[in-house]
Specification:
- The protein has a domain at 102-177.
- The chain is globular.
- Helix content is 33%, strand content 26%.
- It is an alpha/beta fold and 271 residues long.
- Strand 6 (180-184), helix 7 (192-209) and strand 7 (212-217) form a beta-alpha-beta unit.
- It has helices at residues 56-63, 86-92, 110-115, 124-128, 134-146, 162-175, 192-209, 220-226, 259-270; strands at residues 15-25, 31-41, 45-50, 71-76, 95-98, 180-184, 212-217, 229-234, 237-245, 248-251, 255-257.
- The chain has an eight-stranded mixed β-sheet, with helices on both faces.
- The structure holds adenosine-5'-triphosphate and magnesium ion.
């Protein structure tokens, strides 16, 4: 194991995901993200907020290795993305990613969807015939209890409510036994009561399973309510990094700002 003292001084040992001056593009011409730097500490609940098209989903794809930056550096667990590196691939398997579209198999049951999260641990032939080890099935039931869906484990996903579908996607990600949970606007289309119920499920899981979470939100109030840190993205740039401390909203880059000012600034970015 690498000696802590041998690590470059600029890399914090607390970090699980680091981005340094990252730019990204889909066509090698137009930069979608420009010089974004962020440092996500282990155990934090990090949120990303910004207007539609500002580059939030792209940011998450860079974090889970689905995209490679055109400039700058992304480190997960101090490792640069390298699909040929076994240790990197093992690390990446510990990232639970919930895409904006959830990616559920709607004609399959809740349990079958959740077991997808365990597939990297299960022999390919056995998983094809749905012969799962007993301990994995027991773990899936534990996870389903945690998200409040165990009684619906045999139900087809297309028969579930919007909030329940989100719980399935969370359970599938937790089944990976992740260190980090990345969720792309998982509560955006829900009413505020159901959105908070789903957020409470994630908060509960995060505490019980010792997870770092990075979540994209459209609603700044919800982000500030649940996250320790909120990065605001505007037109591909990180313009703020804020969080609630006591009664105040702190701008971690420049000093204190009142809640009203922050919300007004965010409204600007929506225009
Ligand atoms: N696969 C792709 N190919 C080309 N351009 C893309 C692709 N995905 C996203 N883009 C473009 O990149 C920009 C940022 O997209 P991204 O999906 O990251 O935004 P977002 O902030 O997540 O938006 P939303 O809130 O609507 O989900 C947009 O202009 C979008 O059209
Ligand atoms: Mg998006």
């Amino acid at each position: 194991m690498e000696n802590e003292e041998n690590k470059p001084a600029s890399i914090s040992t607390l970090s699980i995901i680091q981005m340094r001056d990252v730019s990204a593009s889909y066509d090698s011409k137009n930069a979608i993200l420009k010089n974004v730097s962020m440092n996500v500490h282990r155990g934090t609940n990090y949120a990303i907020v910004g207007a539609s098209g500002s580059g939030k989903s792209t940011l998450l794809k860079l974090m889970n290795g689905m995209m490679i930056p055109s400039n700058g550096i992304v480190l997960y667990n101090y490792q640069k993305p390298d699909v040929k590196n076994k240790s990197y691939k093992k690390s990446m398997a510990k990232i639970g990613y919930i895409p904006q579209t959830l990616g559920l198999v709607k004609n399959s049951t809740v349990m079958d969807n959740v077991m997808i999260g365990a597939l990297p641990r299960i022999d390919g032939v056995k998983s094809f015939f749905k012969i799962f080890p007993k301990k994995e099935i027991e773990y899936a039931h534990d996870i389903l209890k945690l998200v409040g869906l165990d009684e619906k484990s045999d139900r087809k996903v297309h028969m579930l409510s919007g909030g329940e579908k989100r719980r399935v996607a969370i359970a599938r990600a937790l089944m990976q036994k992740p260190h980090v949970l990345l969720a792309d606007e998982i509560v955006s289309e829900l009413d505020s009561v159901t959105a908070r119920e789903v957020m409470d499920v994630i908060k509960d899981a995060q505490q019980k399973l010792n997870l770092t979470s990075i979540m994209i939100h459209h609603d700044m109030n919800l982000a500030l309510e649940y996250a320790n840190r909120v990065a605001v993205i505007k037109e591909g740039e990180k313009v703020l990094e804020i969080g609630v401390e006591g009664e105040q909203i702190i701008d971690f880059q420049t000093g204190n700002l009142t809640q009203q000012e922050i919300l007004e600034m965010y409204s600007e970015s929506q225009k």
